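User: Just a sanity check before I run the rest of the batch. Below are the structure tokens for the first item. I only need the designed sequence back.
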């Protein structure tokens, strides 16, 4: 014991730094400073049993541990569990600095169990850089936990693409609330929707951005059906591009639009505008046709009863079914005639 005390005392005199400087170093060095102070006390008359951080008695009694006591204690201090806990604390601090509340942080940490804290922080950081506030970020991740499984590189590329579409600076908030899968769906599918709006429907770049912002549900629609919905609005109802954007026309189903529009037409309350945009009767605004409930539509716009509208919807569905049946035989007969002609040509050959 006396030899150990002399060894520690000689070690202490070789330390060139003061206790104040050592205490400002890393946690491991601060722990070393505390250890050295207690070992010095032991060498001057105190006992090693006064050191609370020396670990179990088995470790102190082990000759190898007595020879390398500071190293043993440092290895225990830098265990992997402590490193993981430290990373978690760092992520929590960063999330709080971004403006997340304690409740938000707890929600994020439990959205996808097993997610590495740094992965969570990287995904959240990209959404914050897009201008999305903490509350919408939590909502989007709770609705689509698979977002946390995305590789960070893929997330960065998708966010860059959304910025090119003009969906940065906070405009992505509504999109993520309605359609969070915009971050996980294939970029080719998004590009197809954008291409239909630009090339087939002839919307401007700014109008496409506004449509994606106001009606993010279009991202879930088949591009062909989306084009047909616009054609119905433009050619059958006479709605211009600016009105399609302003009234959020594309977010309504084509079934609902066709039922209410055709019902008003047969009541003589709606006419397709001519080439000059004129009609013989004043057409009601789109908000009174599509944005209102069915009861309000019937009472204020159509001035009709619910029973009459129900009968009309059944008749309209029957008409559409008959039309589809009439088209199918003609297509089949055409294909059969072509096959017969091919057979006759082959026979002649």
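Assistant: Here's the designed sequence for the first item:
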């Amino acid at each position: 014991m006396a030899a150990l005390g002399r060894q520690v005392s000689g070690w202490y005199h070789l330390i060139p730094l003061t206790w104040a400087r050592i205490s400002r170093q890393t946690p491991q060095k601060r722990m070393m400073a505390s250890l050295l102070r207690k070992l010095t006390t032991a060498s001057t008359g105190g006992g090693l049993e006064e050191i609370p951080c020396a670990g179990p008695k088995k470790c102190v009694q082990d000759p190898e541990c007595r020879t390398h006591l500071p190293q043993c204690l440092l290895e225990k201090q830098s265990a992997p569990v402590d490193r993981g806990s430290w990373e978690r604390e760092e992520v929590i601090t960063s999330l709080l600095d971004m403006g997340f509340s304690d409740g938000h942080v707890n929600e994020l940490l439990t959205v996808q169990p097993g997610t590495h804290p740094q992965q969570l922080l990287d995904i959240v950081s990209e959404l914050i850089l897009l201008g999305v506030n903490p509350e919408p970020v939590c909502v989007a991740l709770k609705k689509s936990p698979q977002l946390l499984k995305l590789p960070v590189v893929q997330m960065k590329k998708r966010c860059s693409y959304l910025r090119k579409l003009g969906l940065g600076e906070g405009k992505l908030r509504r999109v993520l609330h309605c359609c969070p899968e915009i971050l996980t769906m294939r970029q080719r599918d998004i590009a197809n929707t954008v291409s239909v709006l630009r090339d087939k429907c002839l919307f401007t770049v700014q109008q496409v951005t506004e449509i994606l912002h106001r009606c993010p549900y279009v991202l879930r629609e088949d591009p062909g059906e989306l084009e047909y919905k616009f054609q119905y609005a433009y050619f059958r109802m006479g709605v211009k591009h600016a009105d399609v954007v302003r009234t959020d026309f594309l977010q309504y189903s084509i079934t609902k639009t066709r039922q209410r529009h055709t019902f008003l037409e047969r009541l003589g309350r709606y006419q397709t505008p001519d080439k000059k945009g004129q009609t013989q009767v004043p057409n009601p605004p789109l908000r009174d046709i599509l944005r209102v409930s069915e009861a309000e539509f019937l009472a204020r716009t159509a001035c009709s009863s619910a029973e009459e509208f129900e009968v009309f919807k059944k008749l309209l569905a029957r008409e559409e079914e008959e039309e589809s049946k009439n088209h199918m035989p003609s297509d089949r007969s055409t294909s059969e005639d072509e096959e017969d002609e091919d057979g006759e040509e082959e026979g002649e050959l």
